[in-house]
Amino acid sequence: MQSFEWVDFQFPTRTYVQRNSTHNMGTLIRDLGERPFVFSIQEEIRSEDEYQILLTGLKKQMSGCIIYDEFHSLPSYDQMDSASYFLRRSGADIIIAIGGRHTFQVARSLAMLARNEVYAGELKQKRFPLKKAPMPVVCIPTGLTIGEESSPDMFGYDSSTGDFFYHRDHRLYPEAILVDPNLVSNPSRNELVRQGMAVIAASVESILSRKSNEITGSLSLKAIELVVRSINTLMTDQANQGARYNLAVASVVCGMAASSTALGLSYSIAQSVHLVTGMDFYSALNILLPHVMEYNLTSSASKYVQIARALEQDIHDISIIEAAIKAVEGVRKLYLDLNVAQRLSDFEIAKSTLGEIAELAAEYPLIKNTPRDMERNEIETILITAY
Length: 387
Hints:
The protein has 2 domains: 14-184, Rossmann fold (3-Layer(aba) Sandwich); 189-386, Dehydroquinate synthase-like - alpha domain (Dehydroquinate synthase-like, alpha domain), CATH 1.20.1090.10. It is built from 14 helices and 8 strands. It is an alpha/beta fold. It has helices at 26-29, 48-61, 77-90, 101-113, 181-184, 189-208, 214-236, 241-261, 265-277, 281-296, 301-310, 320-338, 354-362, 376-386, and strands at 14-17, 36-41, 66-71, 94-99, 137-141, 153-158, 163-168, 176-179.
């Protein structure tokens, strides 16, 4: 009797993608909660004007909005504890997170902290799942986020101690995601290139994840195809709204896949580079991608063939390994065509910090998703190669 292999995929989140919907998002959310806690991190609000339009629409459609924008950047544990205490006492029944990746990560953490009697500094050692379900969260991205608005992950980092926590809980899937392509794909061409390449990097990570399957792989490949097609269009027509819309959709589709597979080594190292040095996360992710792809090439060659095809590489009449190499070459060719930085040293990062970055990355649970087993020394070798 032939065995049956289960495909593990779930994405329970309502997803809305609509142009020029910023002012009207309150109408989509008002049935999800009565007293919203509107949370944002200031450095991830790209346009103050758009942010105020969004807030005005929410206040018009939902009574008793509580605006919490006290954090300029990723908060410490003490700051998170203060915010969760305020949230718990506020009487809010839903969190509306507006911003980027850190905003969504912290919002999900607050959703869990507010319902459970636990402090942020205790989360690393806590057994999951916690007893009480988190508060519902709605995510509204203000830029391309490699789909982190879709994730059921929670994350926190305390720069004073270097301690962090990371947990994944299916109850943290957002209630809804609201995307206005005109809002998220409005930055300059260079910013869109940086973020678009990061969507490709995250999609490749999702494909290479040990939890990848036919459904998530198809979604990730579609995200790569959308970015490649859209970026090429924007090279000759920077105002092309169709291309910008496709980039917004690619980010959402990338997130749908990654929310099921989780990301891996490139993401873990890039996060560590960002936390240790302050370097832009997306730039670090883009630089690390081809080096991590080379590291995993022989263990996932058949997946690389699909990636090469999505990158519009010619793989006719060549071996699987040769086609896999074409995938790495395809990424590097895109970088050259788009003038994307390819070295960590371009960002004035001290080489002496690479060991500290490797140490932090080695603790990140997501490196276990990498096709090959990974140790700290190997992470440092990848960093040196990328330097």
